[in-house]
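Dear Dr. H.,

I hope your travels went smoothly. While you were away I took the liberty of generating a structure for the chain from your last submission, since the lab meeting agenda had it listed for discussion. I wanted you to have the full record in hand beforehand rather than looking at slides cold. The sequence, exactly as received, is reproduced here:
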Amino acid sequence: MNLNYQYCEQDQDIICDGCGDCDKIPVFVYGTLMTGESNWSIIRPFVYGTVPASLPNYEMVSVNHYPGIIEAEEFGVVFGQLMYIKKSRYWEAIKRLDQLEGFQKDHPKSSLFLRKKVTVITENGVLCGAYVYTFNRSIKGLKKIKHGNWKIFMEERR
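The corresponding predicted structure, in token form, is as follows:
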């Protein structure tokens, strides 16, 4: 299930959401960056819309106080939100997100998370291209979150 990613004419490093609007840059979040979570304040100034969404063929692990996702070996799905970033503030937002996620574009092997292009499914069943940060370390010894929902996982821990 891959989209032919649409790229903005002015900047080939920016993908459009595949849903026809290049004024909003989609980022899929699934943990502490979701609305109401501990790092929401980092992304909030850049967001002008959110939609519940899921990411198929990925699975979630708990990396202490935050989640990580990796491509699933078999079946998996991660639940989160598609955040639409204001295009005018995109690079500022990405710089902050890259810093938070430990992503180094010039040194991906040493990055804690990698920024990837994926296809997510909105709650209305629409396929959209988006960026997501995936965990770039071994998951050996980490707890798998089988239901793929960080908010439910956190509620279960209380």
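Two observations you may find useful: The longest strand covers residues 47-56. The helical segments are 40-43, 90-101, 150-157.

With kind regards,
E. W.
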